[in-house]
Amino acid sequence: MITNPFYYxxxxxxxxxxxxxxxLKELKQDIDAxxxxxxxxxxxxxxxxxxxxxxxxxxxxxxxxxxxxxxYISTQEEFINRYFNAIAxxxxxxxxxxxxxxxxxxxxxxxxxxxxxxxxxxxFSLALxxxxxxxxxxxxxxxxxxxxxxxxxxxxFDEFQEIANLKLEAKLRSIxxxxxxxxxxxxxxxKKSLLHQMFMDKxxxxxxxxxxxxxxxxxxESWLTFIVDKFRQSSKIIDEKYIxxxxxxxxxxxxxxxxxxxxxxxxxxxxxxxxxxxxxLKTIISREEDLFTLEWDNTTANQKKAIKIIIxxxxxxxxxxxxxxxxxxxxxxxxxxLKALIQKDIVDKSKDKYYFQDPLFEYFIRKNF
Length: 369
Known about the structure:
The chain is an alpha/beta fold. The protein has 15 helices and 9 strands.
């Protein structure tokens, strides 16, 4: 049985990766220059896959990386231990050598614990009872400097906006700024409103401390070549018009586009037809329906009106008196609603146009409300 050539469930690399040639080159150059970077993209935009692919390619040039996802970290102690473990894992040495390294180089006062899972893979943690957490965090973060003497080091903090909840923003900034030109830090996240506050507010520690690295939707032309080739290699045919229909819904979002192609490929014996396309679309929407309904239900009445006006007006000229009267909303109220929708990361604004951060949510709203 031929394996489906499309993949969307987790981080993607190699044959599942579409384009991003220019961005990959730019990111490698920035890392080589020792820059600290902020990479923002909406959920399901494959920013993590993009960064990990870049770093995996750089490993051939003696670059090492440390990756930590902050999404489910809720305490300072947990952050220190998860980061400590991420550093230890990046050493790719025996557990005994790793423990000896930290004891000799960092001189950490807490005891180092080593646990093994069912497959024999070790995980590392620190006994932090009664210890000075800030001093321990400083020691752990500075341990990376010793690696930088031998290799280029990149530290990736995913969902970095969560660090604000741990009250470590100022401490991290004070340590990281001393690592300038020795370690590259990549800060990633999916909550633009929070990240904007962290890096653009003059009163915040990370104000203007990074290069803003933008990744955009993948162009239709790239998806066309990618999808057609995958179908052809498995002796199946997809007409260009169906790829146009996919992109019109997904706006080139990597996760959704791969998911769409995956479902269509599964349903296709020889060539794609209208029934197959609609079946795939229905399947995808049904999987997201509960999440999208909850997101819609969690908006206020005025926010719902603002969403409908964005759709009706294609994101522009939202203060048209005719539409405000149609939806019984005043100028001040729609301004407040739009601000709240941006803070919720449901919509965003580019120049004079408002747009939905999740294109499938936009499609769902258009069809149902």
